[in-house]
């Protein structure tokens, strides 16, 4: 039946009204609450961007201070959660652990699962933003068999995360300010991206009145896929698989071959048909971090640079407007910092949590809000009579 508009992949359907993030894919423009991402990446910091996304305007000094206090008040997780972690296999992918633990937050913090109470919605938001780095770092520490490191509220949001990942009780560890800044920038660049697959998942889950922890867990599950947040891990693994510059043409040829499912990971975007503005900032950041760490002859990086150069000149990629996206460069920075590829998507998830919450809150307070309930075009059998098994 042709009763409904058919729009596979939602390429031309707006699912909501939103005043949070704006993307102009042709211009390569990304704005959070009207502010260009380039300016925020240079002049702002992650928690300020969180405030902006959640509240709609930049905070004054006092507003910023009290926001920061609220976040730091919630950075520790319930001690009982340590036992929950211990139920997982050590070799579990940290994203698998993250989906489980964040989902379980509604069991640990059931006092802030009442969606109808605005105050409780606020607290759930603070808890999620504050605890995601702690949970992601715990997932990492657990996977490498090291003790969990408690959060430190004297450090910035990004430095605290690096400290929880890389410090061990046996040694004094100091986070280099440049690395904390690079991590903070990665977080800002990933903070929101309007109605992408995981954000739409969070909204759809939330439209039924499900609690925010459950909704964010659903978003994390969606983000994991290689076409979405999982692309950062997939991209670095692809660069390693290519291995050396002379093998690039072979992989370019495969990406162009319609009979080969292989795609260049970290290339292409549903909305950006011009350079991904996040990729530009990320590229510069990658150069800075590698310089700082004195990494010059990294083979993965050489492959990345050459691949980018060849693809940007190739007729196939040019005509389809396939440019490097945010995931192309973020992996290079994270690898240089010492993260295993399995931590790339969890870092995306913890950075995007604020965007998911801002979008969830906007949806909850929308007076026209209805449960999300798509229709379908039915292609199955018409009505028919049941046949007993002996007559089939
Ligand atoms: N390598 C080779 N060909 C590609 C690629 C690629 N990375 N991306 C798109 N194409 C081709 C595709 O085969 C299609 O060709 P044709 O029109 O001849 O059938 C055309 O370009 C359009 O692609 P599409 O799949 O219809 O476009 P989409 O908007 O549905 O998909 C995408 C967007 C991001 C899923 C896709 O470009 C892709 O799979 N990229 C690789 C994965 C990736 O890097 N994802 C990260 C996205 S950025 C942020 C995030 O993490 O979410």
From TrEMBL:
Pathway: Carbohydrate metabolism; tricarboxylic acid cycle; isocitrate from oxaloacetate: step 1/2. PROSITE patterns: CITRATE_SYNTHASE (PS00480). SUPFAM superfamilies: Citrate synthase. GO terms for molecular function: citrate synthase activity. InterPro entries: Citrate_synth-like_lrg_a-sub (IPR016142), Citrate_synth-like_sm_a-sub (IPR016143), Citrate_synthase (IPR002020), Citrate_synthase_AS (IPR019810), Citrate_synthase_bac-typ (IPR024176), Citrate_synthase_sf (IPR036969), Citrate_synthase_typ-I (IPR010953). GO terms for cellular component: cytoplasm. Keywords: Acyltransferase, Transferase, Tricarboxylic acid cycle. One of its GO terms (biological process) is tricarboxylic acid cycle. It catalyses: oxaloacetate + acetyl-CoA + H2O = citrate + CoA + H(+). The active site is at residues 269, 327. Belongs to the citrate synthase family. This is Citrate synthase. It comes from Paenirhodobacter enshiensis.
């Amino acid at each position: 039946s042709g009763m409904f508009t058919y729009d596979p992949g939602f390429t031309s359907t707006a699912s909501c009204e939103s005043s949070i993030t704006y993307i102009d894919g042709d211009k390569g423009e990304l704005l959070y609450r009207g502010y260009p991402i380039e300016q925020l990446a240079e002049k702002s910091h992650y928690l300020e961007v969180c405030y902006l996304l959640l509240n709609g305007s930049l905070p004054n000094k006092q507003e910023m201070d009290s926001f920061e206090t609220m976040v730091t008040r919630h950075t520790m997780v319930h001690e009982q959660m340590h036992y929950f972690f211990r139920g997982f296999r050590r070799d579990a992918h940290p994203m698998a652990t993250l989906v489980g633990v964040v989902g379980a937050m509604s069991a640990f913090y059931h006092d802030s699962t009442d969606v109808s109470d605005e105050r409780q919605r606020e607290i759930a938001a603070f808890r999620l933003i504050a605890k995601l780095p702690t949970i992601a770092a715990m997932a990492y520490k657990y996977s490498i068999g090291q003790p969990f490191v408690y959060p430190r509220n004297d450090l910035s949001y990004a430095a605290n995360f690096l400290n929880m990942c890389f410090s061990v009780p046996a040694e004094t560890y100091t986070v280099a300010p440049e690395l904390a800044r690079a991590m903070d920038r990665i977080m800002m660049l990933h903070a929101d991206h309007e109605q992408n697959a995981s954000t739409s998942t969070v909204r759809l889950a939330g439209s039924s009145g499900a609690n925010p922890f459950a909704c964010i867990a659903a978003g994390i599950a969606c983000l994991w896929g290689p076409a979405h947040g999982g692309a950062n891990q997939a991209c670095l693994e692809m660069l390693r698989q290519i291995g050396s510059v002379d093998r690039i043409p072979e992989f370019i040829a495969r990406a162009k071959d319609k009979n080969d499912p292989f795609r260049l990971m970290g290339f292409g975007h549903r909305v950006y048909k011009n350079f991904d503005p996040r990729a530009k900032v990320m590229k510069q950041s990658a150069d800075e971090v590698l310089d700082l760490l004195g990494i010059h002859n990294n083979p993965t990086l050489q492959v990345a640079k050459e691949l980018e150069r060849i693809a940007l000149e190739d007729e196939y990629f040019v005509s389809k407007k396939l440019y490097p996206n945010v995931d192309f460069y973020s992996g290079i920075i994270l690898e240089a910092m010492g993260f295993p590829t399995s931590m790339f998507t969890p870092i995306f998830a913890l950075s995007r949590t604020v965007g998911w919450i801002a979008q969830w809150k906007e949806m909850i307070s929308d007076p026209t809000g209805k449960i999300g309930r798509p229709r379908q075009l039915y292609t199955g059998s018409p009505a028919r009579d049941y046949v007993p098994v002996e007559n089939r």
